[in-house]
Design brief:
Oligomer: single chain
CATH class of the largest domain: Alpha Beta
Number of strands: 17
Number of domains: 2
Bound molecules: zinc ion
Number of helices: 12
Shape: globular
Helix content: 25-40%
Order of helices and strands: EEEHEEEHEEEHHEHEHEHEHEHEHHEHE
Length: 344
């Protein structure tokens, strides 16, 4: 089959490799579209702490279910257009048996620890495959995974209708969180320093402030007064972002740590104590959140915004151009790879 393989740090090749074999409990998917994620860039640059080379990158995808080794879920049929949670879990560790398999101690991520979706075929756990509802554009279904991340983050935050929400970092995941939080009834504000992203965020209909502007604090006060936000999502992974989250959060508010930091950053624990702030980490997505993402895609409620997130499309054979663009530009949100193109 045709595939893109990260062979070593900074190298990706469009080449041929054998079609993957399914282990028991796995399903085979013929990939249609795959989205390039920030973590694919991490793998490519050799910055992913646990990824191994060679590896087929990519974990955000939609495709056709073409085979299974063992049972498939009720309601699924071979030939269905499907999406899948891009990780395998052991089923036996403490997180797995308590229903938190997104933090499984033996978690293996597609595109990092096992081959991912930038190939004609990919294998996944059959239990993590979901049928795409009829009428959903496969290109939007390719966004199910980052959408599920945002749904997981928003659910974990326990935000309520009418809450004031701050999202620090308006990149892809920050914007997905904004879309989901707004859908859940929150009054959303985004903090972002890139001018391209600020304009993009405004175009999506969200309020955005630059934390480097001198009137930033006044702008914040106009929204929440002296109180602060009910929920703050820290998505930037930056020192300034992490440290400012405590001051932005109101008494008894919640900080959700979504962004990965390069190194540990100190925060004002006295403020966390005095304001009785809850600070929690969230990772990937639960099965429940992924199912909800598929359901929400099926509703069509987010279509207008989701279409705007797709900045550019490449064929699988153009994977080098796609990675070049990703590495050398900042004026984009989601790059999509049309993996099925060669076969049509
Ligand atoms: Zn991703
Ligand atoms: Zn486990």
């Amino acid at each position: 089959m045709n595939a893109a393989i990260c062979t070593s740090k900074g190298h990706i090749e469009y080449t041929q490799m054998p079609k993957p074999e399914m282990e028991y409990g796995e399903a085979l998917i013929e990939v249609m579209y795959g989205g390039i994620c920030g973590s694919d860039a991490h793998v490519y640059h050799g910055l992913h702490p646990t990824a191994t080379f060679p590896v087929v990158p990519g974990h955000e995808f939609v495709g056709k279910l073409v085979g299974a080794n063992g049972p498939i879920k009720a309601g699924l049929t071979i030939g269905d257009i499907v999406v899948a949670q891009p990780y395998t879990t052991c089923g036996d560790c403490e997180p797995c048996i308590t229903g938190n398999d997104n933090v499984c101690t033996h978690l293996k991520l597609l595109g990092a620890h096992r081959d991912g979706c930038f190939a004609e075929y990919v294998t996944v756990s059959a239990s993590k495959v979901y049928k795409v509802p009829d009428g959903v554009d496969p290109k939007l279904a390719a966004l199910a995974e980052p959408l599920a991340v945002a749904i997981h983050d928003v659910r974990m935050s326990e935000l309520r209708v009418g809450d004031n929400v701050m999202i620090i970092g308006g990149g892809v995941i920050g914007v997905f969180i904004a879309i989901v939080a707004a859908q859940a009834g929150a009054n959303v504000t985004i903090s972002e320093i890139s001018e391209y992203r600020q304009n993009f965020i405004k175009d999506l209909g969200f309020r955005v402030f630059n934390p480097l502007d001198k009137d930033y604090n006044d702008n914040i006060k106009n929204i929440v007064g002296e109180d602060g936000f009910d929920v703050v999502f820290e998505v930037s992974g930056s020192k300034a972002g992490v440290q400012s989250s405590v001051g932005l959060t109101k008494v008894s508010g919640t900080i959700v740590i979504v962004g990965m930091c390069k190194e540990p950053y100190p925060v004002d624990t006295t403020q966390i104590f005095l304001k009785q702030i809850e600070m929690k980490g969230v990772r990937i997505h639960s099965q429940e959140a992924f199912k909800a993402a598929v359901n929400l895609l099926g509703s069509g409620a987010l279509n207008d915004k989701l279409y705007k997130l797709i900045s550019k499309q490449y064929k699988l054979s153009e994977i080098n151009q796609a990675y070049d663009y990703m590495c050398n530009n900042t004026d984009f949100f989601k790059l999509l790879v049309n993996v099925g193109e060669e076969n049509r």
